[in-house]
Every structure is written in structure tokens, then in C-alpha cells.
Write a structure and sequence with these properties.
By secondary structure, the chain is an alpha/beta fold. The protein folds into 2 domains: 8-69 and 370-407, Urease, subunit C, domain 1 (Roll), CATH 2.30.40; 71-360, Alpha-Beta Barrel (TIM Barrel), CATH 3.20.20.140. The chain has helices spanning 85-92, 97-102, 107-115, 119-135, 151-164, 190-208, 225-237, 254-260, 274-283, 291-296, 305-311, 331-340, 346-352, 355-360, 388-391; strands spanning 8-16, 28-37, 40-46, 58-69, 71-73, 138-144, 171-179, 213-216, 241-246, 265-268, 286-289, 315-317, 378-381, 398-403, 406-407. The protein has an 8-stranded parallel sheet with strand order 5-6-7-8-9-10-11-12. Strands 3-2-1-4-13-14-15 form a 7-stranded mixed sheet, with no helix packed on it. Helix 6 (190-208) runs parallel beside helix 7, helix 8 packs parallel to helix 9 and helix 12 (331-340) packs antiparallel against helix 13 (346-352). The chain is globular, with a radius of gyration of 21 Å. The structure holds 3-[(4S)-2,5-dioxoimidazolidin-4-yl]propanoic acid (DI6) and fe (iii) ion (FE). Residues 75, 77, 245, 320, 322 line the site of fe (iii) ion.
Length: 410
């Protein structure tokens, strides 16, 4: 990222800082100006203290429009091969996600298709999904592995995910999700597969800097809590962040376990219980809500949003973009679904794709808020009220997108 651009002064903007230190809904500031220098927010203060005529650099008149932090998609599986519309049709006819997975479809169908593609082909197939997210305002996107399930194929997926950042202006964070499904070669020997991940993959990924975190799918159709514990111990020993697909289809106590390891986030959470909520609060673990998967699978059990809110657990919101349970590359749609399906307020929803999304990726000090010292990842919208971002879905209202202070086009 080139961060040595000309300084910029932005004025005549409504700034939704999402900074909890600002005592207003959305951390909203009117009559303020913003100076960007070296890719960062250098100064934020009363507009009256800046004279646009005397500013040495580029001056931007925001026209009274809304400025927000860049959006953050903190949970995606957007690198994969193939597509699974056949399963969609089967589910519409009464089949279940779990039944399809148990007979070798589901995640394993995508594993077969992903193993067939090389790194370059994976990048090509992922590009439209990543561009869709970015065109709507995403400036940070997390991408998981998990459709390779061999050492070589997991590394290939992570390299493809990292390579995407050379084609699209976006911050990419990658997560090793080798414990997504038991690979066919290890059927009935899932402990041996966990051994392989702990002995070979995690050390290699840490050494080569190919991922920032380790994720697991803790579920009856995937890995049990003791296996997840071993994976977390190894991840921690190698200095990687910890995340988990937890309590999506049943309650195996994964969230409580992850909180004990100081996880950055636990995700899905439809079957989360009160004891886990208390543990997450204590550990500072983010609850990442994924309404796309809930909607697309036609789930009826809701994540306990009211209890999370009451306990003061931070809530992120993400797409879970993947070929099976959430083939949706739109954070704007998630903002709307987060409110309509899960009962988030528009303010909670926007915080979920900015400040709390950053926290779920261990990036709280870098992005997700408009505050001095943070990266200048900024969006200018042709909107007056930040609630409109959750309210209206369809029209494109994004006027400018800045990544580290640079205007970008995707
Ligand atoms: N939970 C999900 O929703 C995705 N992975 C997971 O562990 C689904 C992935 C897929 O169906 O391909
Ligand atoms: Fe997921």
C-alpha cells in the first residue's frame, strides 16, 4: 500500500466515526474536518480550525455527505472452486444441509472442486466475489482456507487469498480453517487429521506468514471440543489468533472453550448459551453474527442477540460468503438482514461491519473507526443518515472509497 500520497483536508462532511469515545449515536460528528497524511487519519477536529484556502495538499469538499469507516467483512470463505446450486435445489425440495454433508456433498463437494484448481485459477474465480464486496465499500476482507484439506491444498488456498490483494485494493486477512471438515482420506480417523494440522500445517503457516489466525468448525459433522482444544493450543503456541465456527447447528461448548483461549471471535452462535456469553464477555471475544447463512439455510433458531447485547459482548456482522450456506457477497445485504432477521439496531449493524469487525480480526488499533492514528480507510456516501445503510438495499450510494488515504476504484 502506497502511503506517501499528498496530504488531504476533508471538510463539509458528516462523520460517523463509530468511535465509542464520541458521545453520539454512530459517534456522529458534524462541523468537523479531517486531515489525512501518510495513509492515516492525522487530525480530526472542528472545521473552524482549518482554512481550506491555506491547506498545503488536496482539499476535498464533501458536499455535506456522510463519511464512514471502510467496511470490514470479518468472515468469508470466498476462495473456492465450483458451485453448489444443485444442493440449493435439493434443499428447496426438502433435503437438509446436514444430510447432504453426511453423504459426501456439501463442504466435501467444494473440496473436490477446489483441489482441481491451481492458485491462479482460484484467484480468478474469487475475483468477482471480492470485487462485489469492495464495490459496496469493503476495505478489509478476511478469507479462510478450508476447502483444500491437505497440506498442499490448504497452503494453495491461503496463497491465493493473499494474492488477491495484489489485484484488488483491499486489506486481506487470512485464516487457516483446515479443521473445516474431515477429509475423505481421513474418514474415521479425524484425530490423525488433527495431528497433521498441528504437526505440519500450523507451524508452516505461522513460519511463512500465510495466515493471521486459526479457525475450526466445532460441530457434530466436523470436529469435537477436545480436538478444537488441541488446535487452539497449537495455534496459541505459534502466536496465531483464534477463531471458531461455533454453536451453528448444535451446542458443543465451543464458544466457551474458545473464550478460554482468548479467541478474537466466535461465529454463527445460533445455539449459544448464557454461560458461554459470560465467558466471552470476560475474555473480550467478539460474537460474529452471520445472517446470510441463517437466511439461506432457512434456519429458525436465532442467535441470542438480546442476551449478547445485555452482557455487553461486542457483535460483528459478516457475510460468511461461501458456496454452500451463504453464496452472498454483500455487506449491505448483511446490514439489512442483521436488523430485520436478528433484531440488531442499525447502529449495532454498522458497528458490526466496522469497529467490531476490526476487533474480530485483531485489527482494532488499525481500522474500523474514524479516529486520529487509524488508517484512512474511508467511505463517502450520498446519504444523510447512517441508518440508511441498513435500511435501503440495492441502489449504490458510494461516492468515494479510500484505502489508506488513496482513492480506489474496483
Ligand atoms: N459453516 C458454514 O456456514 C460454512 N462453513 C461452516 O463451517 C459452510 C461452508 C459450506 O457449506 O461450503
Ligand atoms: Fe463460515
Amino acid at each position: 500500500m502506497n502511503t506517501t500520497t499528498t496530504p488531504q483536508l476533508w471538510y463539509n462532511v458528516r462523520i460517523a466515526t463509530l468511535d465509542p469515545r464520541v458521545d453520539a449515536p454512530y459517534g456522529l460528528l458534524d462541523d468537523q474536518a479531517l486531515v489525512i497524511r501518510d495513509g492515516h487519519i492525522h487530525w480530526l477536529g472542528p472545521a473552524a480550525e482549518q482554512d481550506p484556502a491555506r491547506f498545503e495538499g488536496t482539499v476535498v469538499n464533501g458536499g455535506g455527505r456522510l463519511l464512514t469507516p471502510g467496511l470490514i467483512d470479518s468472515h468469508t470463505h470466498l476462495v473456492y472452486g465450483g458451485q453448489r446450486s444443485n444442493e440449493f435445489a435439493a434443499r428447496l425440495a426438502g433435503d437438509s444441509y446436514e444430510a447432504i454433508a453426511r453423504r459426501g456433498g456439501g463442504i466435501l463437494a467444494t473440496v473436490n472442486a477446489t483441489r482441481e484448481l491451481d492458485e491462479a485459477a482460484l484467484v480468478q474465480t474469487a475475483l468477482p466475489r471480492l470485487r462485489a464486496l469492495c464495490a459496496e465499500g469493503a476495505t478489509t476482507v478476511e478469507i479462510k482456507s478450508g476447502y483444500g484439506l491437505t497440506v498442499a491444498d490448504e497452503l494453495k488456498m491461503l496463497r491465493a487469498a493473499k494474492a488477491l490483494a495484489r489485484q484488488v485494493p483491499v486489506r486481506i486477512r487470512t485464516t487457516l480453517l483446515a479443521a473445516h471438515a474431515v477429509p475423505p482420506e481421513y474418514k474415521g480417523r479425524s484425530d490423525d487429521y488433527v495431528d497433521l494440522i498441528c504437526r505440519e500445517l500450523i507451524p508452516r503457516v505461522a513460519e511463512e506468514g500465510l495466515a493471521e489466525a486459526v479457525d475450526v468448525f466445532c460441530e457434530n459433522i466436523a470436529f469435537d471440543a477436545p480436538q478444537c482444544e488441541r488446535l487452539f493450543e497449537t495455534a496459541r503456541a505459534h502466536g496465531l489468533g483464534i477463531k471458531g465456527h461455533m454453536e451453528q447447528l448444535s451446542n458443543l461448548g465451543g464458544s466457551r472453550l474458545a473464550a478460554r483461549f482468548g479467541a478474537w471471535s466466535v461465529d454463527h452462535l445460533e445455539y449459544l448459551d448464557d454461560a458461554a456469553i459470560a465467558a466471552m464477555k470476560e475474555a473480550g471475544t467478539v460474537a460474529c453474527l452471520l445472517p446470510g447463512a441463517f437466511y439461506f439455510l432457512g434456519e429458525t433458531k436465532l442467535p441470542p442477540v438480546a442476551a449478547l447485547r445485555e452482557a455487553g459482548v461486542p457483535m460483528a456482522l459478516a457475510t460468511d460468503c461461501n458456496p454452500g450456506s451463504s453464496p452472498l457477497a454483500s455487506l449491505r445485504l448483511m446490514l439489512n438482514m442483521g436488523c430485520v432477521l436478528f433484531g440488531l439496531t442499525p447502529e449495532e449493524a454498522l458497528a458490526g461491519v466496522t469497529r467490531e469487525g476490526a476487533r474480530a480480526l485483531g485489527l482494532s488499533e488499525e481500522t474500523g473507526m474514524i479516529r486520529e492514528g487509524m488508517a484512512a480507510d474511508l467511505l463517502l456516501w450520498d446519504l444523510d443518515d447512517p441508518a440508511q445503510l441498513s435500511y435501503e438495499f440495492g441502489p449504490q450510494r458510494l461516492v468515494k472509497r479510500l484505502l489508506a488515504g488513496e482513492e480506489t476504484h474496483v
